[in-house]
Structure of Acetolactate synthase:
Amino acid sequence: MTGPATQGLKVMEPLRNRATPAGGAWKRGWGRVKFHTIAAFIIASVVSAPLCADPVTVPSGQPVEFLDMIWDQPGPGLFYRYRFVAPEIGQQGREFSDVAGDLEFLCNQYALPRVAETGPQPSQIVISLSSAPLEFGQADPDIVQFFEAYSVENGRCIWEVF
């Protein structure tokens, strides 16, 4: 094609050697970036998981680790749930009466100092121990759980009867 309408235009050569290679497309672009990012995140999560455990020393001497803190604001006001894993509870010498002092200790010595750092003061703190990690709100007949509720007055945890 020649003429005034095509003057100055370059004629494109037919596409050659542009087909996908025999082994598939080269690994570059967003797909590769996403894969490496996801892989790095998974590796970091697995490596750091044991470092997330927060061991706590309690009066009974049993092993206890901080699991999480959940806050809620039902009718009577703000309250915090501090959840701990204590693998020995429910066993001989680790019945509720044996570890009740640990629950109060965890409220006064672990939860209260952290509540002071978080901001709003709760009307209640619930301390729970479970023999294994368990998702909040779930029940498992093989996992022992102990709970106690405390009101907060004058910077102290006061045990509340359910």
